[in-house]
Amino acid sequence: YGSRRSLPGGSVEVRALRQDGRPAQRAIVMLGRRSAITDDRGRAVFSNVPPGEHSVSVRQLGLLPMTGKVDVKGRDEQVVRLQEPLGAALEVVVVDDAGAALPFASLRVKTASGHPWVDLDDGCQRLDPFTDHQGRRALRGLESGTCRIRASWGSRKKEVTAKLAQGAREKLKIVLPRPAVPRPRRENVDGPLVRLRSGSEAR
Length: 203
What we know:
Radius of gyration: 30 Å
Strand order of the largest sheet: 3-2-5-6
Number of strands: 15
């Protein structure tokens, strides 16, 4: 039997950067089905990568997803540079069908990629999901693509979609109608009907 020989593979170095150009440290890098963690310089190296085109992605909580491709040929050394894209901003207001603001409505965000959205303001994470007393909330750092926003206030709930472009700033009004008031049940004011039997029937 002949000996098994592995196919020659190349080397891929991924360099991940934040929006401001700083290295994206301790981020998860996926090259096809393989994964690695970036170092202090935002770099991750994959060796013995088979020839062909491979997808590359970088993810980290609080960062917008970065994606790209690399074409490996033979034993070549490839360098892939990925930078976090600009996020979109969405000004949301929640009102009822009469236009009155619904204070402290709850919002849930589902991004286009399904990657968890984190509301960061100057590096500080906001954890609560609520609008302010005027039913308003500024959502920052959203991915481009179709975003789903679910608003709830008491028993009222509604989900809407917003198509966002990279770096765009949009406004969204979510209307939560008042629930329908059930009609009162009609009662028989005359009481139950009583059939009177004739004398012959009584016998």
